[in-house]
Write a structure and sequence with these properties.
heterodimer; A: about 300 residues; mainly alpha; MetI-like fold; about 0% strand; globular; B: about 325 residues; two-stranded antiparallel sheet; 2 strands; MetI-like_sf (chain A); MetI-like (chain A); cell membrane (chain A); Aldouronate transport system permease protein (chain A); transmembrane helix (chain A)
Chain lengths: ~300, ~325
């Protein structure tokens, strides 16, 4: 009896464990696949309900509507622009600062580290920050997407920790060859930091691409500066505020008679457009960020 | 500072410094002009964006009127703070914030640890990797997208949660999940779990892989079965990282988040959904009571900082590495 249960036990456990993992995968993926199906289904048909994993009336109208020019396409362009510009600038400045405080001989290393790291633990709060942005004339200005978040203490620490693992001799030999710190940083450190830079670039880009709060606070009165996430948020809150779903469906129904694109279907399309770039990139960077996270936490 | 390389001294100073046995700080700094140029502009930027706004804290001690100069403001001492702690709305907001961040923390830790341990038991490599990659996915989606997904999954018309519960016969008619105040905290907690469980498990998985395999072998020789190994080898193996992360998280107790509650909340559940951040936004930017909103913000920052430094000290006692 005991022997039998010992042989049976691993099979039972493994089966249940595998089923559990598959359930987790399904729960994670289903909402996303459902959104994909809705985005490819005609809006006036979606209202009838019953769309789960596969579109019933195929259409690419919803995506056409997103990219047809006009506000949503403009928001898409703004999102792309802010993500690209901010990621490049922020990566450069953050790693440059990280390099300087990784230099043991640098006299100002300690004070700078403290000044920057402390910013991880406090913030002046929303209201004073809002006034600062206003006083710097960044309200309703594209630069409000770029400038305020340029340097993050967390990212800087991650990069610095990585630089410190590089062999000291490399930097010293560059110095002996007559390279200044800036040259050393550009031509020795940056190329060697590729793995950590990939991780941090992913963090910054995802943060930029997903951000909507800054648009909401600082640029909501200027439609030309709206971002994809903000457009999505407006659609979401308009559909949630009409609290009874019946009135929502009725309102959409009227539209839907003439129109295959409804708020629900276009929301699905924007959701897919807003998540696809990240979903394509992150699996390839997986090994980098997994390692990067370990660097920050499990330090043996 | 013994390994201070000579090469970074400025050329002109070489001769002079030969006579001085130990260089003064200033002299050394002058030899590091490139490092200074590379760092000081960025530090200046940090000072402007992170430190300068603290000056705005003065607003909390005034009846701040935007039209007046600083010198003409009316100073009221701690009036706004006193008001906050007698204001039922603020106390309610404080309760919501604490409750939701505690729920998020407990659920977040428990699910991530369980997921990591169970995933570690999956021996098929491809399967394990696939599940792990899928589990990170929601972490990269914005809260806008996630709350949109949550809202449509919970919807009364066609939401998958209601559909599944009805098919299973657990409920006879759809539940309006987002309109029942008592459910709100749970929904926020579950949304966090859905979004972050895979991501949070990364650290534990890493810790598990660094456990010495000979411990498992020894346990096996002693006749431990799979569950006993999980309980007596794996869990103790990740205990220290769990404790450190928990202590560190205490500092963020007032950071219940803003986005989820703002996006999922509605008029019906407002008594359960509002957090300090939403309170600040409402009073400050929508009603225009800047002083009160700033006071609430200060309270939040001071509590966080105190807790973080306390946590840091406790972590030091535990003999593990501190965060700062």
């Amino acid at each position: 009896m005991k022997k039998k249960s010992l042989q049976l036990e691993p099979i039972v456990f493994n089966t249940f464990n595998a089923i559990f993992m598959i359930v987790i995968a399904v729960v994670t993926l289903y909402p996303f696949l459902n959104t994909l199906a809705v985005s490819l289904n005609a809006g006036n048909d979606t209202i009838r309900g019953g769309i789960y994993l596969w579109p019933r009336v195929w259409t690419e109208q919803n995506y056409r509507a997103v990219f047809a020019g006009g506000t949503i396409f403009n928001a898409f362009l703004i999102s792309v622009a802010r993500t690209v510009i901010a990621t490049v600038l922020s990566l450069f400045l953050t790693s440059m600062l990280a390099y300087t405080i990784s230099r043991k001989e640098y006299v100002l290393r300690k004070p700078i580290t403290i000044i920057v790291v402390l910013t991880m633990y406090f913030s002046a709060g929303l209201i004073p920050y809002y006034f600062l942005i206003r006083d710097l004339h960044l309200l309703n200005n594209f630069l409000v997407y770029i400038i305020p978040g340029l340097v993050s203490a967390f990212n800087m620490i991650v990069i610095r920790t990585y630089i410190q693992t590089l062999p000291e001799g490399l930097i010293e030999s560059a110095k002996i060859d007559g390279a200044g710190d800036f040259r050393t940083f550009i031509s020795i450190i940056l190329p060697l930091c590729q793995p950590v830079l990939a991780t941090v670039a992913l963090f910054i880009a995802v943060g930029q691409w997903n951000s909507w709060f800054d648009t909401f606070l600082f640029a909501s009165s200027k439609q030309s500066l709206s971002t994809l996430q903000f457009e999505l948020m407006k659609l979401l809150s308009s559909s949630m505020n009409t609290n009874s779903s019946a009135s929502m469906a009725n309102g959409a129904d009227l539209n839907a008679v003439q129109n295959m694109v409804t708020p629900v279907s276009i929301r699905a399309a924007i959701t897919i457009v807003a998540s696809l770039p990240i979903l394509i990139v992150y699996p390839f960077l997986q090994k980098y960020f997994v390692h990067g996270l370990q660097l920050g936490s499990v330090k043996e | 500072m013994t390994d201070y390389p000579k090469s970074i001294r400025a050329k002109g100073e070489k001769a002079r410094s030969l006579n001085v046995p130990k260089e003064s700080l200033w002299r050394r700094l002058m030899g590091q002009k490139q490092l200074m140029w590379m760092s000081l502009p960025i530090v200046l930027y940090v000072l402007v964006f992170s430190y300068y706004p603290i000056w705005g804290w003065t607003m909390a001690f005034q009846n701040y009127k935007p039209a007046r100069d600083f010198m003409d403001q009316e100073w009221v001492g701690f009036k706004h703070f006193q008001f906050l702690f007698t204001d039922p709305t603020f106390l309610n907001v404080l309760r919501n914030t604490l409750a939701m961040s505690l729920i998020n923390m407990v659920l977040g830790f428990a699910t991530a640890i369980v997921f990591a341990i169970l995933l570690n038991e999956v021996k098929t490599r491809l399967f394990k990797r696939t599940i792990q990659t899928i589990s990170y996915l929601p972490h990269f989606l914005s809260w806008i997208i996630v709350t949109g997904i949550v809202a449509s999954s919970l919807s009364v018309d066609d939401g998958i949660v209601n559909v599944v519960l009805m098919k299973l016969g657990l409920i006879s008619q759809p539940i309006m999940w987002l309109s029942i105040p008592e459910y709100f905290w749970g929904i926020v907690g579950a949304s966090h779990v859905w979004k972050e469980v895979g991501w949070n498990a990364i650290i534990y998985l890493a810790a598990i892989t660094s456990i010495d395999p000979s411990l498992y072998e020894a346990a096996e020789i002693d006749g431990a079965n799979r569950y006993q190994k999980m309980l007596y080898v794996t869990l103790p193996g990740i205990k220290s990282i769990v404790i450190i992360l928990m202590i560190m998280n205490i500092g963020w107790i007032l950071e219940a988040g803003f986005e989820v509650q703002y996006l999922l909340g509605n008029g019906v559940v407002v008594d359960w959904s509002q957090t300090i951040d939403i309170f600040v936004l409402k009073y400050g930017l929508q009603i225009g009571n800047y002083s009160l909103a700033t006071a609430a913000g200060i309270f939040k920052t001071i509590v966080s900082i105190t807790l973080i430094f306390a946590a840091n000290t406790i972590a030091k006692r535990f003999g593990d590495e501190r965060l700062i």
